[in-house]
């Protein structure tokens, strides 16, 4: 099964959802012009890291309605990056997944909060996996800092994920970690990694861009540069089983020892 993927490497405007909806709309239209099956957005794409103002800005329903309309109009599945998701007093960093018929099929909330960017002061951690199914195949979505936890990613792959979608706001100063971690996660799990980062800067960080699409052998099949752009590639899910036959790590692993 072949899928055309588009990562929208947006330059997010700090604390301005309206501007960000306009950017996302323009980029979705552009991505669809060249034909795409799945669109992926970055982390906190409606607000950026304007954490202090999230109680006023958080509106996951507005983002879901926007994405539902885009999914149906363009006949595309959408991995909705993440948006601030208020539930009572608590705010989660949540990834909505929309099927092309507009159905919200899953919402994953970031499990590992990143203290270096103060997430633990403003956000709550989620308690569900990022697993979901589309077109009878199993996928998973995780958010940014989650990729530093190989056990978390492995759990999703052991439960069937063939493609891991990553939405991020990863700073430029750790670009080397971003690339190395994503390539390692692809090689050790023999799965596709589709990682959508943001570009641009906010008052505290310059972001790395460098969205990447990596195959189950660890080859980088597409990589963006620093600026705002749409990264597109076709992936062939049959490659997952081919790689797992060549080096059968899932047959050879010894879970009794670890
Ligand atoms: N938004 C994030 O979770 C950033 C994670 C990060 O920068 C890291 O180094 O890890």
Automatic annotation (TrEMBL):
Record keyword Secreted present: no
Keyword Hydrolase assigned: yes
PROSITE patterns reported for this sequence: CN_HYDROLASE
Chain ranges of the CN hydrolase domain: 1-237
SUPFAM superfamilies: Carbon-nitrogen hydrolase (SSF56317)
Keywords, comma-separated and alphabetical: Hydrolase
Superkingdom in the source lineage: Bacteria
Any Pfam family the entry gives: CN_hydrolase
A molecular function GO annotation: hydrolase activity
CDD domains noted in UniProt: nitrilase_5
PANTHER family, sorted: DEAMINATED GLUTATHIONE AMIDASE, NITRILASE-RELATED
Protein family per UniProt: Belongs to the carbon-nitrogen hydrolase superfamily. NIT1/NIT2 family.
Protein name (record): Carbon-nitrogen family hydrolase
Classification lineage: Bacteria, Bacillati, Bacillota, Bacilli, Bacillales
